[in-house]
Design goal:
Blueprint lengths: L1 E3 L4 E2 L15 H17 L5 E2 L2 H4 L10 E2 L4 E3 L4 H14 L2 E5 L15 E5 L6 E5 L4 E4 L5 H8 L4 E2 L12 H7 L6 H4 L6 E7 L5 E5 L10 H5 L8 E8 L1 E2 L3 E9 L2 H13 L6 E6 H11 L9 E9 L1 H17 L4 E4 L3 H12 L1 H5 L5 E4 L2 E2 L5 H15 L3 E6 L4 E8 L6 H18 L18 H4 L2 H14 L13 E3 L23
Parallel strand pairs: 5-7, 6-7
Antiparallel strand pairs: 1-23, 2-4, 3-5, 8-9, 9-13, 10-14, 11-12, 11-13, 15-17, 15-18, 16-17, 16-21, 19-22, 20-22, 21-22
Helix pairs in contact: 8-10, 8-13, 13-14
């Protein structure tokens, strides 16, 4: 038997929300009241929200094309409460959707009408900082930027820096394996997390990894990072903190078109230079960002590269000149090297603000996330331009050029009939293009519901079933964040799963050692 994943309701404009819906069945209301009462016994006070108006802030996440109020919200404050909530829901067959800050851009935290939304926002303490071992232990509700703020007085920082770092939580970063502008040199979340405390759907509390750099045994930590809330609820994260580099310099490079900028990116990496960050914006994004932050971006170019190097001052001076030389050989028409820290940060200010800046030039935009081989960048940009013409929708390109992670922003107006459908179709074609040229469906935003139905473009049915067997090993009842990632979810019994119980496997004919 197969369970097709349900689609959430489309986002309605504010003027449409007064549409009357039929009253829920009385049995459903009674069931909901019973669940709320049971969870209030676990999380007392204001820890359970079931008032319809109070539920509205939770009805969507960063993927705002869809919304769905949850059945109710529970806001635990302790690991023991998380464990008890999951244990009760597991016993009663109640679905649970974990949620951090709600900034997910793939619908990973989108609620379900028949599920409890487990909000982890009260887990916002920095528990320990060990500068000798260069680690910090934090709760999942701590924001990405807050980790750096907690350690910067001693000259340290946390390297992954997504554009939403002021708001996104480290728990959500773990769920989606978030990156940022400096992931080219310092890696994604998975490269900077050393350990997690995790509560499984049946309430069991487990620890994976720790403070050591290379724990023994199976790499279950690598399974959890990027698992999108399907396997367990993270209640503690141990991250690697790094000493701030001695020096950092950035160069602003303008090119006549994105193709020549893409060729420059490929040559920089080919010559063995690994910048701390290498970001690109096209003409539309450049103009939007400059109008928003006024940092002096050139407006007469077709593409802008921001390249940063860090390390010893002499090394930075040498590398930045080499990058400028390579850019000149690839047709750069402007080159501006930062002269101080203020100017370097100004270069990044526009890039960090690119997403909200584009929101000023279009009523709506759809932020995509796919990754391609760097050498295919010029070709992909050309083909995206053709897709833009075919769909009659503009696109602003902002992406992590160094590692090929694209973030095209498709411009549309949801008030115009059919434009949202065209934007989604355009986005799907971009993701198919990424896979076609040897890339992947996501670089850091995750699959969620946005890319769920495209998973067969990249994976065979055998691949998807293997992934679902991992899901079954952690969550046999399929209660945790259902409807995400897999277009069709098979019941665990159909997959021939092997579940280890009490140290025994259910196949007596297998040899025991």
């Amino acid at each position: 038997m197969e369970m097709a994943a349900a689609r959430p309701a489309r986002l309605m404009r504010e003027r449409d929300v007064s549409i009357l819906m039929p009253d829920p069945d009385q049995a459903v209301l009674a069931r909901r009241a019973g669940i709320a009462a049971a969870l209030r016994a676990i999380v007392p006070g204001e820890g359970v929200i079931d008032d319809p108006d109070a539920l509205r802030p939770y009805e969507s996440d960063g993927l705002t094309a869809y919304r769905q109020p949850p059945m109710l919200v529970v806001l635990p404050e302790t690991v023991e409460q998380v464990s008890a909530v999951l244990r009760w829901c597991h016993a009663e067959g109640v679905k649970v959707v974990p949620r951090g800050s709600g900034t997910s851009l793939s619908g990973g935290a989108l609620p379900l009408a028949d599920a409890v939304l487990l909000g982890m926002g009260k887990f916002k303490r920095v528990l320990a900082i060990d500068y000798d071992d260069r680690v910090a232990v934090v709760q999942p509700g701590v924001t990405n930027l807050a980790i750096t703020q907690a350690v910067e007085a001693r000259g340290f920082y946390y390297a992954p820096d997504p554009s939403s770092q002021i708001a996104c939580s480290i728990g959500g970063n773990v769920a989606e394996n978030s990156g940022g502008v400096h992931c080219l040199k310092y890696g994604l979340t998975t490269n900077n997390v050393l350990g997690v405390e995790l509560v499984l759907m049946d309430g069991e509390i487990v620890r994976l990894g720790g403070r050591q750099l290379d724990p023994c045994g199976l790499d279950l930590l690598g399974v959890i990072v990027g698992s999108e809330g399907l396997l367990g609820v993270v209640t503690e994260v141990t991250v690697r903190i790094l000493p701030k580099p001695e020096s950092a310099r950035a160069v602003l490079l303008g090119f006549p078109d994105p193709e020549s900028a893409g060729a420059c990116v490929a040559q920089v990496i080919a010559e063995g230079i690994i910048p701390a960050g290498m970001e690109m914006m096209d003409r539309t994004a450049i103009h939007a960002a400059e109008a928003f932050v006024n940092v002096g971006y050139p407006l007469d170019v077709g593409a802008l590269l921001i390249v940063e190097v860090d390390g010893p001052a002499a090394e930075c001076d040498y590398l930045i000149e080499e990058i400028a030389r390579i850019a000149g050989a690839n047709g750069a028409v402007t080159s501006r090297i930062s002269t101080d820290e203020h100017e370097r940060m100004a270069f990044w200010a526009g890039r960090k603000a690119a997403f909200p800046a584009v929101g000023r030039i279009s009523p709506d935009y759809y932020c995509m996330d796919g990754t391609i081989p760097r050498r295919r960048l010029p070709e992909v940009l050309r083909r995206m331009e053709q897709l833009s013409a075919d769909y009659g929708l503009g696109v602003a390109n902002v992406f992590h050029a160094g590692d090929g992670n694209l973030h095209p922003l498709i411009l549309y107006d949801a008030n115009k009939p059919g434009e949202l459908d065209r934007a989604e179709a355009f986005g799907n074609d971009i993701l198919r293009l990424c896979v076609e040229v040897g890339g992947v469906l996501t670089g850091e935003h995750g699959v969620g519901i946005e890319k769920r139905d495209l998973m067969p473009v990249m994976f065979s049915e055998a691949d998807l079933q293997q992934q679902q067997r991992v899901k079954c090993a952690f969550d046999p009842k399929l209660l945790l964040n259902p409807g995400k990632v897999f277009p069709t979810l098979h019941r665990c019994a159909e997959l021939g799963r092997m579940h280890v119980h009490a140290g025994q496997v259910p196949f007596p004919e297998l040899p025991r050692f």
